[in-house]
Please model this.
Amino acid sequence: MHELSIAYDVIEQVEAAAIRHGFKKVNQIHLLVGEWSGVDVEALQFCFPEATRKTCLKDAHLLITCKGLTIQCLDCFELTPISREQALACAKCGSVNTKIIEGKELRIVDLDVD
Ligand SMILES: [Zn+2]
Model:
């Protein structure tokens, strides 16, 4: 399952941080998940308690913030927020010469630790 490997990735990062910063237990973890990252947030929430059972993230509260997609036009540099059904075109000049600058990320934004 894809979300389980994502959970293990996150755990690995947190455990590395735990060693670096010397904390033993995480009370809450806050993840930022881009709408276009391909992560199924519900599936991630579901597998998280099992995946973290033997780690410093045991019983940690998983908080997930979803981030929408934003593209930048490479012709006029306008930023355009995009909904799922919309084409990836610039709102200002209509160009499809764009790049995705937000919405595909998955990262840890905050950890509440003991
Ligand atoms: Zn444009």
In short: Residues 73, 75-76, 78, 90, 92-93, 95 surround zinc ion (CB under 6 Å).
